[in-house]
Amino acid sequence: MLGSSSSSSKGGGNNNCDYSFKILLIGDSGVGKSSLLVTFISNFVHDLSPTIAGQERFGTLTSSYYRGAHGIILVYDVTRRETFTNLSEVWAKEVELYSTNQECIKVLVGNKVDRDSERAVTQEEGMALAQQLKCSFLECSARTRANVHQCFKDLVLKILEVPTLLEKGSTAVKKQILQQKQVRKPPESNACCFQ
């Protein structure tokens, strides 16, 4: 059903990032949400079986996933028309119903363009739906890595342009860094010194 991820702008590790954003990848099972994420964060392309979060029977947990999201990537499989139809009939309605962040940035992604001979949804249809949903649009392939990094980069750059999202992202990181510093602080000892 949906997946969640934090994406950081700038910096290499947890302690060096300037911002932390909650980004959701939503869409039907099997559209490649996990594959897009894994392709983005690693140098390897993996064949992934459906994740637990990708199973529709976990639908009762959805509202908590949407809470506080900075960005949402709505994913469909260009070779399966029903996944495209479900974005406008199911997923977009869930975003509207459960998203607590009104300025949340949305991107519509048609995945699996490497299978063009099996295409069931045209690029023009994707662009029209993106216009209807008031979001940007990209076609990607997790298998060939086409446009995957561009998708996440565009999303983060658009989040950085919205002052309220920017502040919420930086606040979360500040809290996380403070918590990490408290954990690393050496425990105080009540033991006496021996001479």
Strand content: 15-25%
Radius of gyration: 19 Å
User: Judging by the overall fold, what is the CATH architecture?
Assistant: 3-Layer(aba) Sandwich
What percent of the residues sit in helical stretches (DSSP H or I)?
A: 40-55%
Taken together, the total number of domains comes to: 1
Enumerate the spans where pLDDT stays under 50 for 5 or more consecutive residues.
Answer: 1-14, 186-195
Number of strands: 5
CATH homologous superfamily assignment: P-loop containing nucleotide triphosphate hydrolases
Output the CATH topology.
Rossmann fold
How confident is the prediction overall: mean pLDDT? 76
Order of helices and strands: EEHHEHEHEHH
What is the CATH top level name? Answer: Alpha Beta
C-alpha end-to-end distance:
64 Å
Which structural class matches the secondary elements? alpha/beta
The rough form would be described as globular
Secondary-structure blueprint of this entry?
Layout lengths: L1 E8 L9 E8 L6 H9 L20 H5 L4 E7 L3 H18 L6 E7 L11 H11 L2 E4 L8 H13 L2 H22 L11
Parallel strand pairs: 2-3, 3-4, 4-5
Antiparallel strand pairs: 1-2
How would you describe the overall organization of this protein?
40% of the residues lie in helices and 17% in strands. The chain has helices spanning 33-41, 62-66, 81-98, 123-133, 148-160, 163-184; strands at residues 2-9, 19-26, 71-77, 105-111, 136-139. It is α/β, with parallel strands linked by helices and 195 residues long. A five-stranded mixed beta sheet has the order 1-2-3-4-5, with helices on both faces. It has one domain: Rossmann fold (3-Layer(aba) Sandwich). The chain contains six helices and five strands; from the N terminus they run ββααβαβαβαα. Helix 3 links the parallel strand 3 (71-77) and strand 4 (105-111). It is globular. It is found in: Endomembrane system. Pfam families: Ras. Keywords: GTP-binding, Nucleotide-binding. Belongs to the small GTPase superfamily. Rab family.
